[in-house]
Specification:
By secondary structure, the protein is an alpha/beta fold. It has 7 helices and 15 strands. The protein has a 7-stranded mixed sheet with strand order 10-9-8-7-11-12-15, sandwiched between helices. A 6-stranded antiparallel sheet has the order 4-3-6-1-2-5. Strands 13-14 form a two-stranded antiparallel ribbon.
């Protein structure tokens, strides 16, 4: 047995990246792009739940945790939206169709779309936080009769940084959901709302006592969002947040993503807010 085979046999399956081939690279914004991946063998399906993430491995560079942003009902194509912010994601930005990438996963807890059946559902997100929520949007729309009012509130820094513009326009044209988009600053021909996303919460239609809120974005944005949801009357145990702290191993082994008694990679990244509120405002816990 070779040294590589010995190492491979000693590792749990969750630590072994599976090779995928890049089918397409889509530019979303100046620094954000979407990878469409298919299994190298071209036959297997990659099933996941909305809110879960993968570890994407760039051979010879490293790996990063990235939320899955595709449609759970179409597992034949694996979709991730990434922002180029470090050595690994900048290297992935240079990928071309036909290149190979390693994938470990899926990992983590999902958005509680099943627990929200029969309730109004409110999605509030900022920046690239829309990507982890997109699978939940697909699921809800595919099962629309199971839910009450459906609201999506999305904020970006500028109009140029708004993700998935064509999909947002399509969703906004529907009669069975409310979509509001705002930007911190108005530039160019932007005619939409201006201001932080929390300013949209008081005016959108939903029953706060029978609503489930899914929140994803920068932690400072999530903190103020939760405050506004509380003011609106949404119970804390009806609010779910997706955390993205320093995940490195994805199985709770390295301890880098520990928040109080929990590990973001293993116990999250989706948490019911009342279960982590004591540690939410602390960075090093």
């Amino acid at each position: 047995m070779s040294s590589a085979e010995i190492i491979s046999s000693a590792l749990p399956d969750s630590m072994l990246p599976i090779p995928f081939v890049v089918e397409q690279v889509r530019k979303e914004t100046n620094d954000t792009f979407t990878l469409l991946l298919e299994p190298v063998n071209g036959h297997s399906e990659f099933r996941f739940q909305p809110g879960q993430f993968n570890m994407l491995y760039m051979f010879g560079v490293g790996e990063v945790p990235i939320s899955i942003s595709g449609d759970p009902s179409h597992p034949e194509t694996l979709v991730h939206t990434l922002r180029a912010v470090g050595s690994v994601t900048n290297a992935m930005r240079m990928l071309k169709p036909g290149d190979k990438i390693g994938v470990r996963g899926p990992f983590g807890s999902p958005w509680p779309v099943d627990k929200a059946i029969g309730k109004d559902i409110v999605l509030i997100t900022g920046g690239i936080g829309l990507a982890p929520l997109r699978p939940a949007i697909y699921h809800i729309l595919a099962n629309r009769p199971n839910y009450g009012k459906f609201v999506l509130l999305y904020g970006a820094r500028t109009p140029q940084e708004v993700l998935y513009k064509s999909e947002l326009a399509k969703w906004r044209s529907r009669f069975d959901m409310t979509v509001e988009v705002t930007t911190d600053r108005a530039t160019g021909s932007w005619m939409g709302d201006v201001g932080v996303v929390t300013t949209l919460i008081p005016r959108v239609p939903f029953d706060p006592h029978n609503a489930v809120a899914l929140v994803c974005g920068p932690e400072i944005m999530m903190r103020y969002t939760i405050m506004e949801l509380e003011k609106r009357g949404v119970p804390l145990d009806h609010i779910y947040v997706s955390m993205e702290r320093n995940m490195q191993c994805a199985i709770g082994l390295c301890g880098h993503c520990q928040v109080g008694p929990v590990f973001v990679c293993k116990d999250g990244p989706v948490f019911r807010f009342d279960q982590i509120q004591d540690w939410f405002k602390k960075w090093e816990v």
